[in-house]
Amino acid sequence: MRWPQTKLVTALVAVAFTTASPGHSDIQYPMSAATQCSLPGFVSNLSSDAEVYLPGSAQFDRFSERWSNLETPIVNITILPATDDVVKIVGAADKCNIPFLAYNGLHGSITTLGRMDWGIAINLRKLSGVTIAADGQTATIAGGTNSKVVIDELWAAGKQTVTGTCECVSYLGPALGGGHGWLQGHYGLMADQFVSLNIVLADGTLQTIDANSDLWWAMKGAGHNFGIVTSATIKIYPRTLTNWAIETLMFTGDKVKALYQAANDHLLRNGTQPADLINWSYWFNLPEVDPNNPIIAFYIIQEGVSVVDPAYTHPFRALSPLSATPNNGSYLDLARWVGISLDAPPCQNTGTANPRFPLYLPAYNATAQQEAYALFASATNASESSPFANSLFMFEGYPTQGVRGVSSASTAYAFRGRDNNLLVAPLVQYMPTDAARDREAAELGNRLRGILQGGSGRAEMHAYVNYAYGDEDLEGWYGHERWRRERLGKLKRKYDHRGRFSFYAPVV
Ligand SMILES: Cc1cc2nc3c(=O)[nH]c(=O)nc-3n(C[C@H](O)[C@H](O)[C@H](O)COP(=O)(O)OP(=O)(O)OC[C@H]3O[C@@H](n4cnc5c(N)ncnc54)[C@H](O)[C@@H]3O)c2cc1C
Ligand SMILES: *[C@@H]1O[C@H](CO)[C@@H](O)[C@H](O)[C@H]1NC(C)=O
Ligand SMILES: *[C@@H]1O[C@H](CO)[C@@H](O)[C@H](O)[C@H]1NC(C)=O
Ligand SMILES: *[C@@H]1O[C@H](CO)[C@@H](O)[C@H](O)[C@H]1NC(C)=O
Ligand SMILES: *[C@@H]1O[C@H](CO)[C@@H](O)[C@H](O)[C@H]1NC(C)=O
Ligand SMILES: *[C@@H]1O[C@H](CO)[C@@H](O)[C@H](O)[C@H]1NC(C)=O
Ligand SMILES: *[C@@H]1O[C@H](CO)[C@@H](O)[C@H](O)[C@H]1NC(C)=O
Ligand SMILES: *[C@@H]1O[C@H](CO)[C@@H](O)[C@H](O)[C@H]1NC(C)=O
């Protein structure tokens, strides 16, 4: 149900009159701003396709529901803009000093989002679509397009590109922070595919930017900080190899050390693993199999074959897994195989808090893996009804050739080297109860991450911003070279000096 215009206007007037909020008294509005900030003009200015929802409506609730229920933003109104409306909303919100935030796949979980305590949700879901250029070299993805839509539409046209692996995240949410995906071994990160972006800046102007803009560098890794992308034109590629194979091996926890030693020796190979090979593993409780310890699911995925090369699987089969299950299919099956398709648990919003504590690693330290496993097992013990029993420890070994093929200095995404071959993260899942539980979860996540970081011998933390918990420092999100933070700070002052886009991993 859409709110009748009159009711809306009244409600907006109510929102508007609090805009001269304490803490912003330094900003002086001209007399006419009172009228403008009462917003009726602004709302009637929205296109007839825009939708507006207020608290109390089912749609407001539905569009506010996030994947992770921890430090969530608070908003007073949800607007679903149609094409030109983003400009109008951002422009008016900027003038009236009303906080706003882009809502896309709603899988963003960084705790900095909780700093938003009122304002406007700009939900981009109506901006959805994929348009392939006549020459077949690029596609234009509307700002609110879901990852699965991009994958399917390109596939149907015989094309592919790098997208997030999970079907329910948006295309742009991951891409603006770099963006990992199955095909990054060939083509690089998602952001490496950008050709041009239509972006609404903090002042409410819509600009088309490309490699000639000073903002270009920042959009590839810190893009959430600079505007709302209403569409992205990206490189696409012919779909050449259509078949993929997977082998899923399940292990009991006593194999942890041998398993990750084998992963280093036979798969990771100091970062020289083939671009067509991916392997992930998860630790999680599966009480039917082992009520007292998490099991290890180890996935080896290979492109262009119908059976994973036995040279890769043999060393792991030799470790006596509980099971070893081969499967084969197409690119479209990958998400389902590893449990991140639209119908899989990570795509349902169940009210749980889902903080992750990410870390890039050069390789596995089998001893540290074993230590982390022991802590994870005792802290998530299903037999003892741990509140964290549904947690998941994720180990993502994407191929990295395409990522390293792009110069590190050319993007704000900072972690392209061989010392970032692996992306690991405990996901401490629990039903939120109180602040004490939140603290306990954060402490557990940080201890688990700390063990693996300690095992790497590296003092610096490298943390993927899109998985970040929120307590990492700026260096951890955006790189340890000083020039990176200076450059980000300078661009922030130039393009968003009032910090309108500062709820998601702010660069300053
Ligand atoms: C199950 C799961 C699987 C994941 N898989 C991957 C993966 O394969 N690869 C990967 O790299 N990451 C992955 N991630 C992490 C993912 O990148 C982040 O969670 C990301 O923030 C999700 O974006 P969203 O649009 O779904 O979330 P939202 O919360 O809607 O958006 C996150 C933030 O991005 C910004 N934003 C979104 N859209 C725009 C836009 N058009 N313009 C400007 N700003 C925008 C907003 O600031 C917003 O706060 C995964 C996360 C989950 C939970
Ligand atoms: C916005 O919503 C919050 C939480 O519901 C509420 O406390 C606050 O008063 C609202 N602000 C305005 C301006 O309506
Ligand atoms: C309405 O939108 C136009 C641009 O489409 C803009 O110039 C004008 O200022 C807007 N009016 C209000 C009240 O926001
Ligand atoms: C990896 O690097 C180590 C140390 O440099 C070396 O001893 C080992 O042989 C390398 N392994 C592979 C598979 O290249
Ligand atoms: C591929 O999978 C199908 C079932 O989806 C199966 O019938 C077939 O045997 C598999 N092929 C190989 C080579 O494993
Ligand atoms: C989990 O709890 C059970 C029951 O108390 C216990 O026997 C088992 O050793 C515990 N597992 C771990 C890893 O602590
Ligand atoms: C799996 O293999 C890939 C490619 O060889 C490697 O990068 C990665 O580290 C391995 N990952 C895991 C989780 O074993
Ligand atoms: C592996 O981690 C352990 C501690 O978990 C540490 O003592 C050891 O030095 C690490 N090994 C290497 C090669 O860094």
TrEMBL record:
- Judging by the UniProt lineage, the source's domain of life is Eukaryota
Q: Name one Pfam family in it.
A: FAD_binding_4
Domain FAD-binding PCMH-type, residue spans: 69-239
Q: Which cofactor is essential here?
A: FAD
InterPro entries registered for this protein in UniProt: FAD-bd_PCMH (IPR016166), FAD-bd_PCMH-like_sf (IPR036318), FAD-bd_PCMH_sub2 (IPR016169), FAD-linked_Oxidoreductase (IPR050416), Oxid_FAD_bind_N (IPR006094)
* Annotated signal sequence range: 1-20
Q: Has UniProt tagged this entry with the keyword Kinase?
A: no
Keywords attached to this entry? FAD, Flavoprotein, Oxidoreductase, Signal
Q: Name one GO molecular function term.
A: oxidoreductase activity
* Family listed: Belongs to the oxygen-dependent FAD-linked oxidoreductase family.
- The name this protein goes by in its record: FAD-binding PCMH-type domain-containing protein
Q: What organism, scientifically named, is this protein from?
A: Parachaetomium inaequale
